[in-house]
């Protein structure tokens, strides 16, 4: 029989074990992983669009990001589909645009209603013939 270097002979049935590295490797689960939630992806995309073009698009993408983000967090939080981080990011981006806009409009309504009326009239003047 042979010698491993520790002067202990190898017996039949002895197996060479790799040295223990301190942690075991965990293999991913078998099968195809669930696809990322489409609502979460859409929420993130609309959140980015709303952040970049909120004044031109009247905040519609940001409101859409909030609605889709809330719908997506319901599914991703329960573990039905992955993408919870994207859903939360879409929510944050949507609220970053919508909350200051509502605060600004509320401030104008309370302090200067005439200025708000002028802003609305001049802001939508391109719609009139």
Description of the structure:
There is one protein chain. The protein has 129 residues and is mainly alpha-helical. Helices cover 57% and strands 0% of the residues. It has four helices and no strands. It has helices at 38-53, 60-77, 84-111, 113-123. The radius of gyration is 29 Å and the shape is elongated. 22% of the residues are buried.
Describe this protein with a few key phrases.
single chain, 4 helices
Characterize the biggest β-sheet: none
Name the average pLDDT.
81
Helix content: 55-70%
Number of alpha- plus pi-helical segments: 4
Distance between the termini: 100 Å
Number of strands: 0
Order of helices and strands: HHHH
- Uncertain segments: none
Overall geometric form: elongated
Protein structure class: mainly alpha
* Amount of beta strand: under 5%
Supply Rg.
Answer: 29 Å
């Amino acid at each position: 029989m042979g010698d491993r270097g520790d002067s202990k002979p190898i017996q039949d049935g002895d197996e060479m074990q790799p040295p223990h590295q301190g942690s075991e490797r965990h293999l991913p689960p078998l099968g195809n992983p669930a696809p990322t939630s489409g609502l979460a992806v859409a929420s993130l995309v609309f959140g980015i669009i709303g952040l970049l073009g909120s004044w031109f698009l009247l905040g519609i993408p940001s409101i859409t990001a909030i609605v889709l983000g809330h719908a997506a967090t319901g599914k991703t939080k329960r573990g039905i589909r992955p993408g919870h981080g994207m859903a939360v990011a879409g929510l944050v981006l949507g609220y970053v645009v919508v909350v200051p806009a509502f605060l600004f409009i509320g401030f104008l309504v309370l302090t200067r209603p005439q200025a708000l009326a002028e802003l609305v009239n001049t802001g939508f003047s391109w719609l009139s013939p």
